Amino acid sequence: MTAPSPLDDIRALIRDLPPADAEARAACAALVPEGLGKLGDAVIWLSGWRTGAPSVDRPIFALYAASHTDHPSGRPQLEALAAGEGLLPALAKSLGAGVEAFDLAVDRPVGDPARGATMSARECAATIAFGMEATAKRPDLLILGDAAPGSERAAGAVFEGLWDKRGDPFDILTNCGGRETAALVGAIVAARMQSIPVILVGPAALAAAAVVQTVNPTGLDHCRSSATSAASDSLDLPGLTAEDGLAGGAAALALLRLACAGAKG
């Protein structure tokens, strides 16, 4: 018999995620004016997760700061976000969005994957649970990304392991993933449990989405990617904009608000 894992509860939660409100989505589809195209599709998608007329009134950018071996520390990015400095806080403020920056032991890099697992199963489970705090302020749209130098490489390793079907997705995550990817798994799952739509920004968020989708093929129905990429295409996640990075997340938020206004008009 296989020994219990600290990740078993997370796995069970992902397998039993609630579906979208199909009736609300169908009703919205009947009311959306013709000719909205991609904007109309976005409104219909949003309606499956928001009660009443689709709108975006309390969006939050949730970013996870972490560090990787042989990469600069994520602390400067974390401190800048906490101080409201830089492009993203300015963009978020202009869009009426909040910014939450989460410290994932930023002064303690994860292990070197060339020398062993980057995290233990217990640490991974605890980080996933911590990531669920992204919904604590009850946003009606969650824009998920990271502030972790080196996250692109770690996310690529997770994708490679999943695409090659090398084993259990959580084994792959603990062997080569970063804390930011683990926390983003938790944020994606928590958002789904609370019927909060999600925009995914960057490789780490998409790698987290890949872990969720491997466990539950319908686990990303509440998600969209901020931009189209090879990774988002592999997950069958529509990209909302052509802009990459956190600026793409801001553009996607603006697009969704425009879509909702267009549908009401």
Inertia-based shape: globular
Question: Any idea of the CATH topology?
Answer: Rossmann fold
CATH C-level:
Alpha Beta
CA distance, first residue to last residue = 59 Å
* SSE series: HHHEHHEHEHHHEHEHEH
Supply the CATH architecture.
3-Layer(aba) Sandwich
Major sheet, described briefly? 6 strands, parallel
- Quantity of strands, as a count: 6
CATH superfamily: Nicotinate-nucleotide-dimethylbenzimidazole phosphoribosyltransferase (CobT), large domain
The count of helical stretches stands at: 12
Beta-strand portion reads: 5-15%
Low-confidence stretches: none
Over all CA atoms, what is the radius of gyration?
A: 18 Å
Number of domains: 1
**pLDDT average, as an integer?**
92
Structural class determined from secondary elements: alpha/beta
Spatial sequence of strands, sheet with the most strands? 2-1-3-4-5-6
Helix content: 40-55%
Structural features:
265 residues; 12% strand; Rossmann fold; globular; alpha/beta; six-stranded parallel sheet
